[in-house]
TrEMBL record:
GO molecular function: 8-amino-7-oxononanoate synthase activity; pyridoxal phosphate binding
Stretches of the chain forming a coiled coil according to its record: none
Aminotransferase class I/classII large domain segment(s): 30-358
Organism: Arthrobacter mobilis
Top EC category: transferase
Name of the featured protein: 8-amino-7-oxononanoate synthase
Reactions accelerated catalytically: 6-carboxyhexanoyl-[ACP] + L-alanine + H(+) = (8S)-8-amino-7-oxononanoate + holo-[ACP] + CO2
EC number: 2.3.1.47
Pathway(s) annotated for this protein in UniProt: Cofactor biosynthesis; biotin biosynthesis
GO biological process: one example: biotin biosynthetic process
Amino acid sequence: MQDWLAAQARVRRRRGVLRQAIPRTAGRAVLDLASNDYLGLAADPRLQAAGIAAVERYGTGARASRVVTGTQPVHEELEAALCALTGQPAALAFSSGYTANLGILTALGGPGTLILADEHIHASLIDAARLSRSPVGMFPHADLDTLAKLLAARTQPRAVVVIESIYSVLGDAADLAATAALCAGHDALLVVDEAHGIGVAGAGRGAVHAAGLAGAGHVAVTATLSKALGAQGGAVLGSAALREHLVNTARTFIFDTGLAPCSAAAAAEACRIIAAEPDRVAAVGRNAALLAAGCGIEQAAGAVQPVPVGPAQRAAELAARLEEAGVLAGCFRPPSVPDGISRLRLTARADLAPEQLRWATGLLRSLLSPTEAAAWATT
Ligand code: PMP
């Protein structure tokens, strides 16, 4: 095993895909364009106060599964706040967006359920589909004609279609109305991962709400509390019947310790702030436009502006050069994206000033080779 580990490490270094989990911002003045704190709420004093109050009242951990003694009033408060924000009838909090995705697809899946998924869904949904023991079909990104054919040819009694509302790697938004109508016509459930939608799209209430689909029985939403909501955790939103089914069958709900009270309270506070402060949400869009214009790219639908680079090694190199100069940029490269379409990932947080964004994009442009600059000018 040791030899294999060393060989693997060599390959990662050679291919420029080495990742490190190290503190990137501690003790340094840097401009963070890499995190997912889209609304700048993670350090908001109101979320901090809500979290601290919950720690004092309920303790630091949930102590048990939600179906044993781990459910506290703060979990119910969070679920009600999520419903109020998104217009959904019911919500169920999980310990992460990852476990929420595993929970819903494994609870709905099995040999009698066909799962059809967009090829660009997040790794957690891919893992969920695999774990579900369902027959799984992938359709080309946003290709509703192929999806329609696959749905029409299904032999299983049930079908679940899995998409994201905003794809963070490609930066585009799904056609929710058309996909939901297709699902309704084929008696399929549409599961929409709104990790990058809630807090950002539809005045912060999410793209599903904006499409008038909140509360539609054939549409369910999964969410993370760890991006725009500035906290930690995840949730499934949908009908009361779906919630009850998950409480009884979702293994990542039943066999996982409940969400920490501090995270639940902070996320509930974030839901209230998002509804009350539309300017904060609007600032994400304004900053996204500035970032895109500064990089000369088409503005992506959400907070994340993916800047195409190509080779993984070059994307990593540009990210490293930016970091040396004080800008933290994300880097999508294998295994997050297929080989050859690596990209930088710049996040348009609401709490960034226009001058900061102009400076960062100017810096990035100054690092480009003439060929890259020419290619970018024509995109
Ligand atoms: N879905 C999508 C689309 C995501 O981007 C992420 C986070 N990277 C998740 C799910 C997982 O959410 P969490 O980080 O809360 O586990």
